[in-house]
């Protein structure tokens, strides 16, 4: 089989070749995203290439995110790390390209550079420190084709990432630690189909009204380990037990000129149908922490969970849009405690946008995250201590984040960030200091994000 990097190149070329053909006569619809190109003057679109591509229904976006993070106190070791993610995003309107009404093609790929990752290197955390943290590699992410009908139905097929549409809060996205929640990332095989991993699947969406949506998706349930079996995102695994996700969304006052406060509510659930292991008892009914146990966990049928996501604007300045002013968000989720490391997840926060005098595009906010260790895992820890083992009974992990996102130029933001880590790993032992807990601590960071 050709090298993975070659397969990424071929996959990207297939989409680009599809886009390079017949041009439609229609004009581009809608504005381009806010881009740093606006500050580049005549260098924003050399030769008019980007405008020519968009006239043919082709949008190519480049996103560059770089950060330095460090913990001066706490964890296994202190010191800074660097992480960077360069992303290319290609969207092709096949209606404008070839008159295929309702069809869209999409692909994106990353180049990830990470010198350590504070979550694993320093804190052995369950909760994300940085939402771009991943194994250093070049990786294909999503690659899909979507068909939309006038009835409000849309079907998407290809390699998909669930975190783009499911279990997500728009208000919480500015925070570095806001990510695919740990209750799914820690409980699903290989973390589930979420950054930096995607997996083959299909997603059905129905929008019967502008304020109401229903989503149903089926994914290959195990994308493979990002650092070993699926390092470049080109395995296209199809034979693993599936993951099914469903979500109902309702929104209010989302129009730019709406007089009321904007908000949304999402209710969802997921089910992985593959086998799961009991975290406390073996196949014979003995406790796994008992030396008499053979160590083979009791087999269970699948896992899953339910969740809710709420975004609500509290203050909307005159003339402001749905993301302006003061907003809050919250996510709450639960999973069966007998087979899942995390059985309860809660996060939320407050974001203030556009209210800094003289800086209408800046925002700042405060967020909190709580992840509780499941009852069976806590029971296993107690059993291990009862039978003379070491360690501690894990309970929960929490974090607090304070962040300020300032716009340097349209399309370019710089973001200082402070996080406080409590009880990393839920209260695990420090491997370099037997008999002592691994200490929490502080993380200081600076992120730069540019969109072109």
From TrEMBL:
<dbReference type="GO" id="GO:0016020">
    <property type="term" value="C:membrane"/>
</dbReference>
<dbReference type="GO" id="GO:0015288">
    <property type="term" value="F:porin activity"/>
</dbReference>
<dbReference type="InterPro" id="IPR007049">
    <property type="entry name" value="Carb-sel_porin_OprB"/>
</dbReference>
<feature type="signal peptide">
    <location>
        <begin position="1"/>
        <end position="19"/>
    </location>
</feature>
<dbReference type="InterPro" id="IPR052932">
    <property type="entry name" value="OprB_Porin"/>
</dbReference>
<dbReference type="Pfam" id="PF04966">
    <property type="entry name" value="OprB"/>
</dbReference>
<keyword id="KW-0732">Signal</keyword>
<dbReference type="InterPro" id="IPR038673">
    <property type="entry name" value="OprB_sf"/>
</dbReference>
<dbReference type="GO" id="GO:0008643">
    <property type="term" value="P:carbohydrate transport"/>
</dbReference>
<comment type="similarity">
    <text>Belongs to the OprB family.</text>
</comment>
<protein>
    <submittedName>
        <fullName>Porin</fullName>
    </submittedName>
</protein>
